[in-house]
Here is the input.
Amino acid sequence: MRVAAAGLALPLLMAGCARSAAVTACSGTRIVAHADSEGGAFDGMSHSGTRLALRNRGAAPCTLPGLPHLVFLDAAHRRLPIARRPPFGMHPGPVVLPVRLGAGAAATTSLRWVAGPVYTRTACMKVAALRIAWPGGATTLPLAATICGPKGAVAGIVQPPLAPAGAETLSGSGSPGNH
Here is the structure.
C-alpha cells in the first residue's frame, strides 16, 4: 500500500513544482523613469539627491538589474565624471538581485550626492540629464542638479539597489528596513 501511495505522490509533487513562464528583461520602451526631489527632502549640509522611480508600462512583468548603470550628462549631453560608490566594506559591492516589475509596477532608489564645496579643492558639475542603462534597454530623463567632488577625481554618488516602490531600505545597503 505504501508503494502505491508513494507512486501517486511523486507525480503530484512534480506537477506542483512546474516552472512558470520566464520573466524577460525590461526593454527600454517598457520603462518610464521619473526623478523627484521630494520638495527638497534630500537637501541639507552640502548634500542633495533625488528619488528615482522606474515604472513598467508594459502589459507583462519584466526584470531590471538591482543596480542599473547611471550616466550623468551635461547640457551638451557629454558624460560627466560621476560614479556610484560601493558601500564601505563591500568592494566591489554586494551581490544584488534583479527586481521583478509587474505590469504597471515601479521600483525606486534614493540617489544622494555632495552638492557644495566641502573638499579642499572642489569641482562642481552642472547635471542636465540622467541616462539609466541596463542589459536590454536604456532611458534618459532631465535632471537639474549640481554634483561636487574632489578636483581631478570622479565625484561619487550613493546609489542603493532598486526596491519595489513603497518598500524601504536601510541607507545604501539594499536591505529591507523597518517601516
The mean pLDDT is 83. The first helix runs from residue 2 to 16.
